[in-house]
Amino acid sequence: xxxxxDERAYFFKIDTAIKRIRYALQKRFNEAxxxxxxxxxxxxxxxxxxxxxxxxxxxxxxxxxxxTVTRIIDILTKKGLAERRLADDDRRKFLIFLTPDGETIYAxxxxxxxxxxxxxxxxxxxxxxxxxxxxxxxIYQNFSA
Length: 145
Known about the structure:
Layout: H1 4-7, H2 10-31, H3 38-49, E1 53-54, H4 55-62, H5 66-78, E2 82-86, E3 94-98, H6 100-121, H7 126-142
Antiparallel strand pairs: 1-3, 2-3
Helix pairs in contact: 2-6, 3-5, 4-5
């Protein structure tokens, strides 16, 4: 007997929802006159919450590979939004920080991000959110072993 999930394209549903969210967020950024991409925002968000994080840690948190993280940090650095500083304990390791301009951009764009999240969640309840995160965490763990 096959399990119902064997025949359901749940990945397609997840993927299309993510694409729709990313599109809506990018559109809001563009309308606000921001030249940031959603991927750049993701790193800015994590850098705001984790100042002085290493590139490797940033990659783990964002599930982005090392070349992608390096490329985005390079772009953010050129825009004056982030900076690399040598780690005191290891001169081969860089720690990444937002600049004051990066913190300003974070503060400007965060309300848009929150609004998009609220729009996406709509009328769903806190209990729905708990079920959603449990299910998504379970799917993630199924591929982490």
